[in-house]
Design goal:
Acyl_CoA_acyltransferase, 183 residues, GNAT_dom, two-stranded antiparallel ribbon, Bact_Acetyltransf, transferase, Aminopeptidase, Ribosomal protein S18 acetylase RimI
């Protein structure tokens, strides 16, 4: 069951908690408590404070945070306006609270943000061998574009245990202002 959550943009003071959340969800033993771990694919950390600060400071970029009523951080998502796309990255849910609808809640918040910015689609990248994650995004309207991106070679954010490639996925957003007078 989805807990009562609020969504708000992250600030610089949120970076330490955000680093801990992202790394716990993607890498290491803690990540194995959830279903979105990359621990078998990559060694090392997923991100660090400097990386998140750089991402947060980018033009048109933000992290949205999902918190419980008592302020506990349960999830986050990175968004960057690349009109007509809103780029979505690092969708993260605390591994001990995955499979409770928090990811869907964050996706809905990202869609609202995209529409607010006038974007017509959401673009993201997913590691090609993450079949369960690709299927989850497909169930939420994302389609593979046929384009790929080389996996980053900066070892600060993980050392691949195998050759990896990123698939680009896009979700077209329905036009909420479509002409309803057409018969």
């Amino acid at each position: 069951m989805l807990p009562a959550l609020s969504i708000a943009p992250a600030t610089a003071t949120d970076i330490p908690a955000l680093v801990a959340l992202v790394n716990s969800a993607y890498r290491g033993d803690t990540s194995r408590q959830g279903w979105t771990t990359e621990a078998d694919l990559l060694e090392g950390t997923r991100t660090d404070a400097a990386d998140l600060a750089d991402l947060m400071a980018g033009p048109g970029a933000t992290f949205l945070l999902a918190r419980t009523a008592n302020g506990e951080l349960r999830g986050s998502v990175y968004l960057k306006n690349q009109h007509p796309d809103l780029y979505l990255g690092m969708l993260t849910v605390d591994p001990t609270h995955q499979a409770h609808g928090i990811g869907k809640y964050l996706l809905a918040a990202a869609e609202r943000q995209a529409r607010h910015l006038g974007c017509t689609s959401i673009l993201m990248s997913v590691i090609s061998v993450r079949h369960e994650l690709l299927a989850w995004y497909a169930r939420h309207g994302f389609r593979q574009t046929g384009e790929t991106v080389a996996f980053p070679t900066d070892v600060r954010f993980g050392v691949p245990r195998q050759e990896l490639v990123l698939l680009l996925l896009r979700k077209q957003l329905e036009n909420l202002h479509a002409d309803s007078s057409t018969n």
